[in-house]
Design a protein that fits this description.
Helix content: 25-40%
Strand order of the largest sheet: 1-2-4-3-5-8-6-7
Order of helices and strands: HHHEEEHHEHHEEHEHEHEEEEE
Shape: globular
Distance between the termini: 31 Å
Radius of gyration: 22 Å
Number of strands: 13
Structural class: alpha/beta
Strand content: 25-35%
Largest sheet: 8 strands, mixed
Oligomer: single chain
Amino acid sequence: MTLKIKLFLAFILMLSNFAIAQDIKSDKCGNTDSEQDNQQLVLRGDHWGYGYDDLLDDLQIWSQSPYVKISSIGQSVQNREIWQLQITSKDTTTEKHTVFFHVRTHPGEVQSFWVANEIINLLLSEDSLAVKTREKCVYYIVPMYNPDGVELEYARQNANHVDLESNWYSENNIQPEVIALRNRFLELMDKKNPIEIALNLHSAYKCKRYFVAHHQNGTSYSYLQMEKRFITGVRNYFLDGIEPWNFNVTWSNGNPLKYPESWWWVNYGSNVLALTYEDGNCDEAGNFDITARAIVSGIADFLDIWGKTSTTINLESNPIVIYPNPAGNKLNIDFKANFNGKIIVFDSFGRKVLLKNINNLEKYTCDISYLKPGVYFLKTMNSKSNNTQMKTIRFVKK
């Protein structure tokens, strides 16, 4: 290998690491602004207008519905219960889709609760959409994921002054709230009908309603298409209120490995659509009922509970999909059709670290546990068409 190529690859590695570092510094809800947080607290009142006691009162009301089961998924730092609602019809014989919401990770973002509140009200009603949704889906909703933060009036932290949103990959300081929610996810993913959609409700100072989409560089091409289809479907029910799918696209420099959506992608790939929704954290916030109906309607369409559409993803323009990326000890490669040829992995210095001959496979899983953490390059060589493709992989040991 020539010196020029080595220098080029080293430069790519440096840019990749720099870009990833920049992405990790960003906050999906916007930069912390204590002055603005305090202003919103004064404006909205104690606990930003909705505290833990208010939740306990509402749990009593919701529990009277025949469609609800209420339980705790665990305790917070200060031993407050983290409550969960399960909403579905009484019929347990029908195979159902599973949808999960968790809400108010950041206590100051109370608008996320008001959206969830309207979703709950809708799902418990006898509206035709609610009746059909309960028949075809099981909704799990955690309306106050960070009860200590709410009671202590911390804008974004729990009782240990930790932001739960970015605590999912902490090695020595993982919080009990994160453990409780992660364990609940794992429990439901082991069931016959695992979670298909996981929505994380927030609100941002941008004063816009939008979903945070994830670029294919941090997920995969097919996952990005899935996100676009879902977000566009929700927005069709509230065109004037919800921003287009590309309003906020993150992870263009790779998966930052800190959010719950990062955890979902690394562990379950495109089997679970995991997205953050941001409402407007501002005086102009409102229309929570319209927003809630749009989200539930979009979910119904995406899961095709009406039996009208096909959910097939077209991968024609990008036939090779790799995931998870960043990779753990395993790397999955999906081909558009049966693939015959070679896959080769190079390190950042151009050294060949893996070579495999693939014979008539649509999917292949590589063991890359022996590699050192870093950036690698995957090359596929199709023996039939003589086409080649290059992909960048970020490897992080588990």
